[in-house]
Write a structure and sequence with these properties.
Radius of gyration: 17 Å
Helix content: 25-40%
CATH architecture: 3-Layer(aba) Sandwich
Strand content: 25-35%
CATH superfamily: Vaccinia Virus protein VP39
Structural class: alpha/beta
CATH class: Alpha Beta
CATH topology: Rossmann fold
Length: 199
């Protein structure tokens, strides 16, 4: 954290969480939760007043999460096919997951499962100045070879998907390293029914 303004970036990230978690929420899900860091943060902010769900395809991580937060519900599933009812979540966290997926279907699923007016919180690694077609081909090839598709998307790919779903970007943060790779946080809101959306 000492080199390159790491502390200030960490403070920026904490501010995102602080702003997002100031609302009144009852159901929060961490999609592709891993160890469930997002849910640990939610638990510290909101405590027992919120129902928390951790969803991951790896049962190992779900068991670890359950040992960290015993009152969280865990679901073993693929984030691209969520076994969650339509419009049932107040917040969906998708952090450190998108670069591991073959496509951006998790965005469609998060829009489907988040209530109107709800929040989708994205955090991931992205690329820029790399043609999307090359990255798409790399993901395709990895899947055909039986490998994990783990290849970052471009920020433009993600923003284009957000626009296609008519989600509203409330905040965006990007930290670029070596001009090409970066870390992003995007806070989205699903528009209320009948409300116009935009960036």
């Amino acid at each position: 954290l000492r080199r390159g303004g790491g502390v200030s970036r960490l403070i920026d990230i904490c501010r995102f969480y602080d702003r997002v978690l100031r609302g009144k929420y009852t159901v929060v899900a961490d999609l592709g939760c891993g160890l469930g860091l997002n849910l640990v943060i939610v638990n510290r902010y909101l405590g027992k007043i919120v129902f928390m769900v951790g969803l991951d395809k790896d049962v190992f991580f779900l068991k670890l999460l359950k040992s960290i937060l015993s009152d969280v519900d865990v679901i073993q599933a693929d984030v691209s096919f969520l076994p969650i009812r339509d419009e049932s979540l107040d917040i969906a966290f998708i952090t450190g997951v998108i670069h591991e997926l073959p496509d951006l279907r998790v965005m469609d699923e998060s829009k489907r499962t988040v209530k109107a007016g709800g929040i989708i919180f994205i955090g991931d690694f992205v690329l820029r100045y790399v043609p999307s077609l090359i990255l798409k081909f790399i993901r395709f090839l990895k899947v055909k070879l039986g490998l994990e598709p783990e290849t970052p998307f471009t920020l433009m790919d993600i923003v284009t998907k957000i626009k296609s779903l008519s989600l509203v970007i409330e905040e965006i943060y990007a930290h670029w390293k070596f001009l090409v790779t970066g870390k992003i946080i995007i806070v989205l809101r699903r528009p209320l029914v009948g409300a116009g959306g935009g960036i």
